[in-house]
Write a sequence for this structure.
């Protein structure tokens, strides 16, 4: 397994109760709103970057949220390849 770092940008900002439900689904992500944009920054162990992102999106969707996009720092992309 390898640690992958990425951010999921959400379509809506979760309430405190909804954020608590999300934290019940995962312990490797931090929910924040930056410049009015709701996001979850993940540090997820997985065999591949694709697997890490897909599983994080599935976790977020399982509590009723949609993901607008995935963001990564340029050096994180280089390390993943």
């Amino acid at each position: 397994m390898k640690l992958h770092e990425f951010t999921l940008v959400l379509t809506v900002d979760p309430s405190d109760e909804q954020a608590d439900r999300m934290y019940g689904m995962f312990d490797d992500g931090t929910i924040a709103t930056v410049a009015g944009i709701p996001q979850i920054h993940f540090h997820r162990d997985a065999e591949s970057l694709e697997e890490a992102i897909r599983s994080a999106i599935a976790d977020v969707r399982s509590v009723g949220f949609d993901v607008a996009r995935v963001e990564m720092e340029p050096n994180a992309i280089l390390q993943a390849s």
Observations:
- The first strand starts at residue 2 and ends at 10.
- The longest helix spans residues 49-62.
